[in-house]
Write a structure and sequence with these properties.
Bound molecules: adenosine-5'-diphosphate, magnesium ion
Strand content: 25-35%
Largest sheet: 8 strands, antiparallel
Strand order of the largest sheet: 2-1-4-5-6-7-8-9
Structural class: alpha+beta
Length: 363
């Protein structure tokens, strides 16, 4: 379980420390930084997958992502710092701008650079003896499988995390464990349900115990729950959300597609004919009831474009999923939180923005 997430200088998040419970719900008005926190946690997980530069590029580059407030004018000292503390470890990543080098002119002046990266064994308050990774720029000191502290001799690519750059990961079990734990986190933001989106087209199917973050494998992930997951719970929740409807998957020459039977209609409707809200709810249901639950699920405003009638089913879904996964849920809907509270306890955070900085009030 994650006990704490710390974010420094990421967009509107100047500096916050979040103590996490099993289920965490985050509220706040538009523009207060809810999605920024979502993206910061996503970036931390992207680093573990070797996608730090790519993800920052998608976000508009480090110059847009770094907090643009006034008391951070010294560009050299400015860093995005992300860290998390779990039952087993503390991981910290510091990303900043490259140092100017007059002898080495380059157009890549705004590439993100990993300035520091650290891992400690949890519970020792970051004591030096508990440190298993200490990286500064392109030099890393790490503990190997024999408990020896060694210097990583191969140059480390400065724009990415050390994860994925260690030639023999089995020699560094603690570091591999951190990487695998963080890579296992799942993120669901918006599902593209536009007319030509992958979700609406038949897809080559294979057993899928996890829904892709864009929902593109919806049909095969649905069928995987039917065959090896909790189909009773999925059916119950879908019936609550869509009374008079039932759903099934068809395989046409290895292409999988989801269909909906509706009382009063003489033929099943294809995914391409379903409403946006129906497909979004199906994605959430399949994501949250997947047979291989991740250790952490991050959901950004899942109630968007859902009819309020679906909220009781969504609340049940989230509370059921929280039995198997820790959950971070950003939401606009107080009604959803009230409905969830009928099933499980959670930690509530209310966000606001003041002086260009996201502020957090634990309720
Ligand atoms: N680099 C940045 N520095 C400071 N504030 C930023 C930066 N990038 C975006 N913001 C601010 O973040 C806010 C948007 O936050 P967001 O998380 O999308 O809000 P919401 O709570 O609606 O999800 C806006 O107020 C925007 O001005
Ligand atoms: Mg948002």
């Amino acid at each position: 379980m994650i006990h704490n997430i710390y974010i420094d200088n990421y967009r509107s998040v100047r500096n916050i420390s979040l103590n996490l419970a099993r289920l965490n719900i985050i509220f706040g008005p538009n523009g207060c930084g809810k999605s920024n926190i979502y993206k910061a946690i996503h970036l931390l997980s992207g680093a573990a997958s070797g996608q730090l530069s790519e993800m920052l590029g998608d976000e508009g580059g480090i110059q847009n992502t770094m907090w643009s407030g006034s008391n951070g004018s010294n560009q050299k000292a400015r860093r995005i710092c992300l860290s998390c503390e779990t039952d087993d470890f503390e991981y910290e990543l510091q990303v900043g701008f490259p140092d100017a080098d007059p002898f080495n002119p380059t157009l890549f002046k705004l590439d993100p650079v990993v300035k520091e990266e650290n891992i400690w064994t949890a519970g020792f308050k970051r004591r030096p003896s508990s440190q298993v990774l200490k990286r500064k720029n392109q030099v890393a000191f790490l503990s190997n499988i024999h408990g020896e502290k060694i210097t990583h001799t191969d140059a480390i690519y400065e724009n990415e995390s050390v994860f994925g750059q260690l030639g023999e990961p089995h020699l560094y079990p603690e570091i591999s464990h951190v990487r695998e734990t963080i890579k296992n986190w799942r993120f669901y933001h918006e599902f593209d349900v536009s007319k030509k989106s992958a979700i609406r087209q038949p897809q080559i199917g294979f057993r899928s115990p996890i829904l892709a973050s864009d929902g593109s494998n919806l049909a095969s992930a649905f069928q995987t729950i039917v065959e090896i997951g909790d189909i009773e719970l999925l059916t119950e929740i879908l019936l609550t959300a869509f009374p008079e409807c039932s759903f099934f998957c068809k395989n046409d020459n290895a292409r999988f597609m989801l269909f909906m039977n509706r009382k009063g209609l003489s033929r099943p409707l294809e995914t391409s004919e379903m409403s946006d809200g129906t497909i979004r709810f199906l994605c959430l249901a399949v994501a949250l009831l997947c047979p291989r639950p991740p250790n952490f699920i991050v959901l950004n405003e899942p109630e968007n474009s859902l009819h309020p009638q679906m909220l009781p089913a969504l609340a049940k879904l989230i509370s059921e999923a929280s039995r198997y996964s820790q959950i971070w849920l950003t939401s606009h809907s107080h009604e959803l939180a009230t409905l969830i509270s009928k099933h499980v306890d959670f930690q509530l955070y209310e966000l606001s923005i003041s002086n260009g900085q996201t502020c957090i009030n634990r309720m």
